[in-house]
Amino acid sequence: AAMAVLLLGEGNFSFAASVCAAAGPRVVATSAESEREVSARGRAAESIRRLRESGAEVMFSVDCTRLKDYFSPAKRKFDRIYFNFPHCGRKAGVGKNRELLARFFQGCAEVLAPEGEVRVALCRGQGGTPADRPQREWHNSWQVVAVAAGAGFILSAVRPFRAEAVPGYECTGYRSQDKAFCTEGALMHFFTRSAELLPVKPMICEIELERRRVSFQVPRVLVDKINRGFLEPGSNHPVRTIKEQLAAGLSHAFPVQSIDCCLSLLLGGHLAGGCHSHVFWIILSPEETPSAEEMAPGRARAILFSHVDCHRDTDEGVQEGRHIPEQYYLRPSLLPHAQAIIKSAAFVPGTLYVFSGPVFRKCRISPHCMPVFHEMVFVCAVNRGSENSCIQMLVDKIKASLHALHETLSDFKLSISLQEATSFAAAQLSDFAALESQLGEAQFFLWMEAGAEGCSQQRRCLGTVRVAPGGLAGSDLVVVFVSLNLDLVAMLMCAIDDWRVLWTSDERFLRQFPAGELRLFKSFSLYPPSYKHDVSFWLPDGEHFDEVAFHTIAREVSGESVVSIQLLDSFQQPGTGRHSLCYRLTFQRGDAALSRGAAAAMQQRFREEIHGRLGLTLR
């Protein structure tokens, strides 16, 4: 079918006539003025005649902020909407023009097809994005990306507006005044619908654990991340492409046995000191017939035989030292499963055992630190004295496998290095893993440096190498464990600068990786707006402030829309000794529209939650 095109705010209809010649008869061209006013000017009458002869519909006195009033429901499916050089007229300030754009985008949302596009041409500097040369100060611009976000749109592309490339186009001014808009340096902004940020609903999950059926609630921060199936057969997600390439490459040097199924997401038992706040604790309940409330439309129920966790973020029994029977937590690593396999009778020295799957860790907010990621663990037992050669062979094959994938990425540099753990301070590794002390001491860290030619290189710690005794009495075996964060590998190799994009539900992400092919990622949301909100509070007297819990609550209430949390000030009141902290939260989404109002609502809810759950006294 021919593309349905709507043009708004036409001055003399010359742009519409040119579009109609290229797009065909399904064109609706409109003006805010009456037909008598428009026809009396310049070549407008000729353009209107050409449009009508071509089968296009021409409409007058159309208010661009009330579009649904002019079209029946059957006709509210435009594939493309144009609005060139919108303006309130005369000396209207930036505030009024922002309001015009905001109402215009709201109107577009009601008549645009799901995969449609809105194109808005603005004069130099008006948009307020880095694409403008020069870029105006934010407060002095029309803030086009932020106002579009209010209607659920993201900026997907920006290109120069070239009037000379539109045959027959003559630019006019506001309401066809003699002074035309200046098109030099003008930009055409391309907006598309954002994936909707849906509210998180409680999820009750059932699992089989130690031959019992139990149920519990998934923590809110993980509801949209659990059971995504990125590593499942048929997935073309980059993490699966990398996993398969690594497994294939290592199979040329070792007999390989993959163990991906039947790995419980729940672990139990003792945790080393300092690790309690970094894991997701669960409270198990015996499985019973679900109540009517549990099965109501607002509550999701899933049957999972390999993972999940509880709704609560902290375990009061752990915090207060009380004994809680049958403590379980979501696995923070696959290493405990790997350590268990070496004690089984089926364990064969010299065979490379490969484990992969999602793991879960509470962590502070940063673009490269995620509460869930896909880990890949390699385990091999060798004779004592040959562990270094085994490590070198493993690392060489990992390098070769990733370089083979890298060859498909043009103008892209990639380097991998193995360095001793003793050469790095703990502060350098804080983003890599919060539970390394509980998982055992690492002897080496695996680093990757990657980036496009001519751009700054990103360097990240991707994994660890450990060597441990074989565990069998009288055995001369040692076991080599190599752990990799597949998500970080994918981010570096595909030039993805925020883990939330890797986990986005927007289909435009996976479309960039057909049939599992690795490519450099191209953002479909340019210059996303950010909103800063500060919060200050008094700490409870004599109690430890759990900053990880503070960050986790921010993740929950914002649906991962907080991109950073910065400590601005720490103050101790003279005389009383009371301690106050002030933090700045920056709200921003790289994969979805986030409006100013939505960010403000998230901040208000965050204030309420930290008061109620952490006992903080807001200032």
Brief summary of the model shown:
This protein is of the alpha+beta class and 619 residues long. Helix content is 23%, strand content 27%. It folds into three domains: 5-193, Vaccinia Virus protein VP39 (Rossmann fold, 3-Layer(aba) Sandwich); 228-262 and 332-511, Bira Bifunctional Protein, Domain 2 (BirA Bifunctional Protein, domain 2, 2-Layer Sandwich); 530-618, Ferrodoxin-fold anticodon-binding domain (Alpha-Beta Plaits).
Q: Mean pLDDT score, rounded?
A: 85
Biggest sheet, spatial arrangement of strands: 3-2-1-4-5-7-6
What is the subunit arrangement here? single chain
| Low-confidence spans | 288-325
Number of strands: 25
CATH class of the largest domain: Alpha Beta
**Roughly what fraction of the amino acids lie in strands?**
25-35%
- How does the major sheet shape up? 7 strands, mixed
Query: Quick one: CATH superfamily of the largest domain?
Result: Bira Bifunctional Protein, Domain 2
